[in-house]
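Problem 12. The chain below contains 202 residues. Write out its predicted structure in token notation.
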Amino acid sequence: MSLINTAVGLLAISSPIGVLPVVARAAGGDDTRLRQISRMAVLTFLFTLLAACWWGQALLDLFAITLDSFRVAGGLILLPIGLRLIEGLEVSHPDVETDSGSLGVVPIGLPLLAGPGAISLVVADSPPSWPGRLALSGVIILLAMAIYLILRVSMPLRRALGELQEKVISRLMGLLLSAIGVQMLVGGLKGCFPVLGTGWGG
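Solution.
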């Protein structure tokens, strides 16, 4: 996939709009707390995906897992998430009643923003050359900055969007995510079974 597809996929998977209710609830109307939670969540998202970009392939090699097999697994992870978003079903959110400052790391940073789907997409799409990984790292950094801005204005943004707009955006992200999951699944199957590539037009 291209870097644009990767960026769109990561944005759909992380779904910062869908995380807004959790962030607003955890902040409790306190702007200082909102800023702290947003910062920790985005730093967790950033470092997790950068680690997946640069060292994910090494971990696959360590366990003798091929990239095509990982693409199949990633597609199987992404597709149900996308379908749930299309159907309007919420991805389950861990309890956030606690006042702990670690909420920005868990559950908001992990697994809501940088969950298995996002990690799978980055590892599967990470180029083998270091210039390509630098480009992908740049995409991840830009997305982290955008997500931080969205989270910082979570409370007024929720009021401005309204429930209907949130649902529309969520379903659109689900459609994009489902398409990316299918693309990863098909690409991985073609790599695992080259004969299928001939049957599907190579």
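Discussion. Residues 68 and 192 are 6 Å apart (CA to CA). Students who got a different answer should revisit the alignment rule from Section 12.3.
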